Amino acid sequence: MVKPPRLIAWELTWGCNLACVHCRGSSTSEIPEGELSTSEAKHFVDEIVEMGDPILILTGGEPLVRKDVYEIARYATDKGLRVALATNGTLLNDGVVKKLKDAGVQRVSISIDGSTAQTHDDFRGVPGAFESSMRGIEYLKAGGLGFQINTTITKRNIDEIPAILEIATNIGAEAHHIFLLVPTGRGKELENEEIPPAEYERVLNWFYDQQKHVKIQLKATCAPHYFRIMRQRAKREGTEVTVKTHGYEAMTRGCLGGISFCFVSSTGDVQPCGYLPVIAGNIKEKSFKEIWEDSVLFNDLRDYDKLGGKCGRCSYKNVCGGCRARAYAATGDYMAEEPYCIYNPR
Ligand code: HEM
Ligand SMILES: C[C@H]1O[C@@H](n2cnc3c(N)ncnc32)[C@H](O)[C@@H]1O
Ligand code: SF4
User: Fold this and answer.
1) What is the ipTM of this complex?
2) Ligand 2 centroid vs 150 CA: distance in angstroms?
3) Is the CB of 274 under 6 A from ligand 3?
4) CB count in 10 Å sphere of residue 318
5) Which bound ligand lies closest to the C-alpha atom of 112?
């Protein structure tokens, strides 16, 4: 029996008011044809609920440019799903926050990619974005809606990560989630802005140390090797990774794409994640359940014995698995080895 997804990121619309240099969706202000209608969106929620009760992340593009975002969030909340919203934060105001709260949205993520307006705005392609996002956060706080900060790490902002974490802590974020640049969408043009593998190792070790004393929740997404590093560090410290010592992170694994997580595009394509442009099926053509359970793509990803190169030989493959999107971007084969890992399995 295939377990249902625990987390679904749903691109409500591809359209966006910003033009970030790294955007995996290459989003612009245009709205493409064929995005799910309100009733198709509700039907999708029904399909999700028939299978399980995952966390549903409403993302984009910029989900707040879609007028029925509240109606969809309300519908999913009423059906028992925990709904989160991923936004760039620039379109938040009193009224929007109130409507999100009324729709039952439980947490909002705001992307902050620099500790200064200059770095953030350069990243996000629009002057004033930093100020607008920070103002957005104030509206969330005033409205009593919990939020987390999402940061994508590249060579441009690597030195600012400690400062962004400090901002996140000072402004009252519940969590700071880091994403490591995946060279896909517009991010492909930033290829030599990915931090090199040795730098990944350094940042993830730093992250491990921070976990021990920062008060907010930290999570490294799109950095599956963190789950290896965590075990190597624990071993050196004479402990093991257990829920007691390492909390939630002990129960999960590196890449969850196709295993307990998936991404659904604005036109209904189901993908392992938003960074891996390979399609398992489209919900307008097939049931979500059938796509999730039967697609060759998802079944490949669930079979760690199919991993190629050094990921296939690695004793950490059950807890890491490498970034399938980065492997695909580098080779065209989503089961190939993760290109940004310095570990050499024996
Ligand atoms: C404990 C709960 C959570 C877990 C385990 C989790 C885990 C994940 C995972 C595995 C991914 C996919 C990354 C990949 O494909 O490798 C992801 C993506 C993401 N998460 Fe979380 N997440 C959690 C909570 C949240 C919350 C509460 C928010 C927002 C309020 C959020 C925002 C996002 C966003 C925006 C993405 C990227 C989706 C996209 O646009 O492609 N996450 N998360
Ligand atoms: C959901 C989060 O994903 C980030 N994001 C957008 N494009 C990419 C990419 N190519 N690589 C990594 N993260 C990305 C956004 O900046 C947001 O914070
Ligand atoms: S990363 Fe988010 S805010 Fe930036 S262009 Fe893409 S969808 Fe818009």
Assistant:
1) 0.91
2) 8
3) no
4) 11
5) 2
